[in-house]
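Before relying on records like the one below, remember that each one covers exactly one chain. Contacts with other chains, cofactors or solvent are not represented anywhere in the record.
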Amino acid sequence: QKEWDTELVQELKSFEAPIIVSAEEKLLTELAEAMTALDYNLKQENYPRCAELKATILHLEQQLNKFK
């Protein structure tokens, strides 16, 4: 059993690949999350949070424009 466990751990480690995310992909992910949160907060009528999220979205969009 110990030998099998050791082999299994070795195999699992060999499958682990580092995930490299570009700065642009990270910004796009953050933008999608912010837009989803904005939609949710609009439905909840949480307008102060919506204002914060709108500012965040504008900032992320400005950063993304640098990649064009």
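The mean pLDDT is 86.
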